[in-house]
């Protein structure tokens, strides 16, 4: 082995703790970087990516089975511009009744499921992604779309009460279609058993086209398909562009915070790797002096030290890539659920680019101080040995010595000033950690607030639907639209029910406003709805007919502001209404109007099938109330159920992603501190020995070492909190904007003293935790040994 | 005859492998003595000093210093014991380079928790006595070797230790500075300070020791009292 090789090997081997910490730090930084990069990359146009990968259907067309045969439908594959097709798949819509999991009430209405008969999971168009269980292997099985129905459906049965024999199907898997072509799939042979007598299944055909980039191109493609089919046989069709717009809006909600956290993670990793590597090399300055006095050239010295840094860093990087890919699995599966896409994976280039960048960073961080030390005159390098950069930070030592503190603490306080560069970097790492935690806390708190606000879409503890509990008894023939219960009668029953504190009814409908081309969703309230008001961004809730409350998009689309007048257009009549408030709503992309039913009546619009929201008197047993009310409403054809606050999958995903990324940030920051303290105590081992010989007790030593980073931690934490708040104030409104709403002030103001104090102390905590281990090592070093080291 | 300040019984010390650094050594030192420990390199002199200061534990035997069994102390108790009873001077001074001379000298009092004013008075008095008061605000790096060793001695004496331990105090000094330190130690002993010093410097042993022992391979090879000094 060459002299250089020996020096490198000894350098790695003899400094085992340091090499281990370096490997550990690189590993964590690479893990965090791979995860962050994977998420940021996956958040770029996730729909387009999975659409391409799954060969998504540009057009999904449904044909009337009575007017076109399967062969005729299949022939449309030859229409102009079609490049690939899948199908025809027989298609039926059936009401199904899943076995409710224990403790959950059956849904009041049997949900209607669009079931396609399909043989294979894959295909030339709309290849499905299996998300759990397995694909169909025989009769009596069904695969449902991921996210459909109650949770934990896998392995359970669903009944189909609307067709003869009330067949039962076992859910054997869940799958995802990138454009949601169906709610469930069975083998084609099963479709006949799911078809109501006297009806013919429809035929579904999926197409990809040569040109599909614009609405115009899609219109032309659609026309070509329609022309190729028997006249009047096309029941309906859907362009992927519609699905894409919705998906992109959903993604856009995520991009701001994913980008913010991802960037924090990447910058932090760069910072930590830089400080760890350059710190390790600088700590070896004296050794470099010895090597030079033996005749090593500066270049050889630099090579030796780069090699010494690269060995543990490379080991850490390899492990980090593996862990990063593992860690990305739960992260990306959260994102999959949120983006409604097929499987997201770590982009292959990340696994190459991140390690390459990290190793390049290691080389640069090692080279700079190694070259500097290599160029130092040998005597100087030899002299540096014991205390680093003698002379720096003396003013701090003198100042700290004057403080009325135990000497161990004042010595520790002055510590960081002897190494200002390293201290600044570690402070920056702690600042980033504190920013991450502060931001994550605020994001979570704001989203919880927003979620609570959005749940006010359907407020109250109990709701009453104007339908009987089940629409179709087994074998009772085709399920027609149910007869609605009389709202006035329902209202009287509710008011008479003991335990009712307040109630109102609301109904969704579509209305038109002067100057707005598309229909606007309106929610018409009857009764005093003020207790169930949405969270307000500005203005107030309406309190009489003629006043409306609107979502943010409505204001944008109409160019109006709170206080302005608008014109509601009804059946030949129109009425003026005043905008009295802006509410937070993400429903209908924020294009929503909330008002008293009286407002709509003035425009000649009346709606009947309203849902009632009920608030209970304090102390009322909800379950018993629901049972009693349900019995009382039965004869009217209405049903009551308890309302469970829903947590949107989006919020759950954001919370989970935030938690994972923040944890990584804190971990990296803590490791940075750990590493710095290891280096510091290693450099000061001789001084530590002297102090112990003078009678410094172990506890005083631990105190001194911890104080040496506690100051940095406290300052970093204090600086990080306002920055984290600023990031929150920047990012959260953008997320709201993407979801079509502004965020109410009440949800933005989430930082109060009781949370700020622990957040500000967070930096201190990171520092103390990171320093604890090396501090106890320092206290345990044998004094006699320490005094022998030079 | 005053009570023994150091009582070492059958002490042996063996590092991981290799021959014992101390092999069944027994030694009693009375208060007021100035004991010079001689011996070839590797004979266990520094090891003996470390045992007495409680910096290391013997593998066998007992070490009693000023009535305290130092080999049985916990880390914390042994640190407190050093603070109160022991002053140490090293060959390479071991001053903290980023503290001024005065701050270095103050350290032991600060670790002990002595009041500010009292500690300061004591430090100023010591620096004055040792003739280095004009360097009080300087950093050790600027002092000569002899001056640095005087600072180290001042620091060692700060808490009026019962025992002053010195390991090759003149080993890194030129002849003139060595002579200064020699005189200083002799004067201290004349004033009643018990001193145990490890040295290769026969002149040092002769000029200030009241008793000389020699170690060879961790055993006592010679023990003689100076007739006069
Ligand atoms: N921490 C240690 N670990 C292992 N061996 C040690 C340690 N300290 C001392 N020794 C060994 O113990 C023996 C005695 O060492 P010691 O330092 O006491 O000798 P010394 O008499 O002070 O020598 P010198 O005059 O060179 O200072 C030596 O062989 C040395 O190698
Ligand atoms: Mg020695």
From TrEMBL, chain A:
UniProt keyword Cell membrane present: yes
Protein name: FtsX-like permease family protein
Phylogenetic classification of the source organism: Bacteria, Bacillati, Actinomycetota, Actinomycetes, Kitasatosporales
Location(s), subcellular: Cell membrane
Ranges for domain ABC3 transporter permease C-terminal: 261-375, 660-781
Cross-referenced InterPro entries: ABC3_permease_C, Macrolide_Exporter_MacB
Membrane-spanning parts: 20-42, 254-283, 304-326, 346-368, 424-444, 656-680, 701-725, 756-779
Bilayer topology term: Multi-pass membrane protein
Organism of provenance: Actinacidiphila acidipaludis
Family from the record: Belongs to the ABC-4 integral membrane protein family.
Chief site of localization: membrane
Keyword terms, alphabetized: Cell membrane, Membrane, Transmembrane, Transmembrane helix
């Amino acid at each position: 082995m060459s002299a250089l090789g020996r020096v490198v090997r000894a350098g790695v081997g003899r400094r085992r703790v340091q090499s281990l910490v370096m490997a550990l730090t690189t590993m964590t930084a690479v893990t965090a970087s791979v995860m962050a990069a994977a998420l940021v990359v996956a958040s770029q146009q996730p729909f387009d990516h999975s659409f391409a990968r799954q060969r998504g259907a540009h057009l999904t067309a449904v044909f009337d089975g009575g007017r076109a045969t399967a062969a005729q439908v299949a022939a449309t594959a030859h229409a102009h511009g079609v490049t690939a097709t899948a199908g025809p798949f027989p298609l039926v819509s059936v009401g199904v009744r899943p076995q409710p999991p224990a403790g959950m009430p059956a849904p009041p209405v049997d949900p209607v499921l669009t079931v396609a008969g399909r043989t294979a999971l894959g295909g030339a168009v709309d290849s499905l992604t299996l998300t759990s269980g397995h694909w169909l292997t025989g009769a009596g099985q069904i695969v449902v779309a991921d996210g459909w129905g109650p949770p934990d459906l896998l392995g359970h049965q669903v009944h189909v009460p609307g067709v003869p024999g009330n067949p039962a199907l076992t859910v054997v898997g869940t799958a995802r279609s990138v454009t949601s072509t169906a709610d469930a799939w069975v083998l084609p042979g099963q479709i006949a058993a799911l078809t109501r007598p006297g009806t013919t299944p429809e035929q579904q055909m999926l197409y990809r086209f040569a040109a599909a980039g614009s609405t115009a191109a899609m219109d032309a493609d659609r026309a070509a398909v329609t022309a190729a089919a028997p006249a009047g046989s096309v029941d309906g069709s859907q362009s992927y562009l519609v699905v894409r717009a919705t998906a992109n809006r959903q993604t856009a909600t995520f991009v701001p915070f994913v980008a913010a956290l991802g960037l924090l993670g990447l910058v932090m990793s760069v910072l930590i790797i830089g400080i760890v590597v350059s710190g390790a090399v600088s700590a070896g300055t004296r050794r470099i002096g010895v090597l030079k006095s033996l005749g090593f050239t500066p270049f050889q010295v630099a090579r030796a030290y780069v090699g010494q840094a690269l060995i543990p860093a490379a080991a850490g990087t390899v492990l980090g890539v593996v862990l990063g890919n593992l860690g990305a699995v739960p992260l990306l599966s959260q994102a999959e659920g949120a983006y409604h896409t097929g499987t997201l994976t770590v982009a292959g280039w990340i696994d190459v680019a991140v390690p390459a960048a990290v190793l390049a960073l290691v080389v640069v961080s090692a080279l700079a101080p190694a070259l500097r030390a290599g160029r130092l005159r040998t005597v100087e390098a030899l002299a540096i040995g014991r205390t680093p950069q003698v002379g720096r930070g003396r003013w701090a030592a003198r100042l700290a010595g004057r403080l009325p503190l135990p000497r161990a603490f004042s010595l520790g306080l002055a510590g960081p000033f002897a190494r200002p560069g390293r201290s600044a970097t570690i402070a920056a790492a702690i600042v980033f950690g504190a920013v991450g935690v502060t931001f994550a806390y605020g994001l979570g708190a704001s989203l919880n607030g927003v979620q609570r606000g959005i749940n006010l879409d359907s407020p109250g503890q109990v709701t009453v639907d104007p339908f009987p509990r089940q629409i179709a008894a087994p074998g009772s023939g085709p399920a027609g639209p149910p007869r609605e219960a009389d709202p006035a009668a329902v209202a009287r029953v509710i008011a008479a029910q003991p335990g009712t504190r307040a109630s109102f009814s609301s109904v969704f409908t579509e209305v038109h406003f002067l100057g707005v081309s598309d229909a606007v969703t309106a929610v018409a309230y009857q009764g005093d709805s003020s207790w169930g008001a949405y969270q307000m961004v500005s203005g107030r809730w309406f309190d009489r007919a003629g006043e409306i409350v609107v979502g943010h998009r409505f204001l944008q689309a109409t160019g109006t502001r709170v206080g302005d007048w608008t014109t509601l257009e009804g059946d030949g009549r129109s009425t003026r209404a005043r905008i009295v408030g802006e509410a937070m709503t993400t429903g209908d992309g924020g294009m929503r109007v909330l008002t008293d039913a009286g407002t709509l009546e003035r425009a000649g619009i009346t709606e009947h099938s309203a849902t009632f929201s009920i608030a209970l008197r304090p102390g009322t047993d909800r379950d018993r109330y629901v049972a009693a009310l349900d019995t009382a409403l039965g004869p009217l054809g209405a049903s009551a159920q308890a309302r469970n606050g829903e947590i949107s999958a989006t919020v759950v995903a954001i919370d989970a992603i935030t938690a994972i990324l923040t944890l990584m940030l804190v971990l990296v920051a803590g490791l940075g501190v750990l590493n710095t303290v290891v280096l510091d105590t290693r450099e000061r081992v001789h001084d530590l020995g002297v102090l112990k010989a003078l009678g410094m007790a172990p506890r005083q030593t631990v105190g001194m070492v911890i104080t040496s980073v506690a100051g940095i931690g406290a300052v970093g934490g204090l600086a990080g909190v306002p920055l984290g708040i600023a990031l929150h104030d920047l990012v959260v409104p953008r997320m709201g904007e993407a979801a079509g709403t502004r965020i109410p002030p009440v949800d933005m103001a989430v930082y109060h003293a009781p949370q700020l104090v622990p957040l500000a102390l967070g930096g201190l905590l990171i520092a103390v935790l990171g320093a604890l281990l090396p501090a106890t090592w320092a206290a345990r070093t044998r004094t006699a040994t320490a005094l022998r080291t030079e | 005859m005053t009570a023994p300040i150091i009582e070492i019984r059958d002490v042996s010390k063996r590092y991981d492998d290799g021959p014992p650094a101390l092999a069944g050594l027994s030694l009693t030192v009375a208060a007021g003595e100035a004991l010079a420990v001689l011996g070839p390199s590797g004979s266990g002199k520094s090891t003996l000093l470390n045992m007495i200061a409680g910096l290391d534990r013997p593998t066998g035997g007992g070490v009693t210093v000023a009535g305290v069994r130092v080999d049985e102390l916990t880390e914390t108790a042994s640190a407190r014991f050093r603070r109160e009873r022991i002053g140490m001077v090293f060959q390479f001074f071991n001053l903290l380079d980023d503290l001024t001379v005065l701050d270095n000298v103050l350290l032991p009092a600060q670790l002990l928790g002595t009041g500010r004013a009292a500690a300061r008075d004591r430090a100023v008095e010591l620096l004055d006595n040792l003739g280095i008061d004009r360097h009080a605000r300087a950093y050790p790096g600027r002092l000569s070797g002899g001056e640095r060793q005087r600072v180290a001695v001042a620091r060692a004496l700060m808490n009026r230790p019962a025992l002053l331990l010195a390991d090759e105090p003149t080993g890194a000094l030129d002849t003139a500075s060595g002579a200064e330190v020699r005189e200083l130690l002799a004067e201290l002993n004349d004033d009643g300070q018990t001193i145990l010093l490890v040295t290769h410097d026969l002149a040092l042993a002769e000029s200030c020791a009241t008793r000389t022992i020699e170690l060879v391979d961790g055993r006592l090879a010679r023990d003689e009292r100076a007739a006069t000094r």
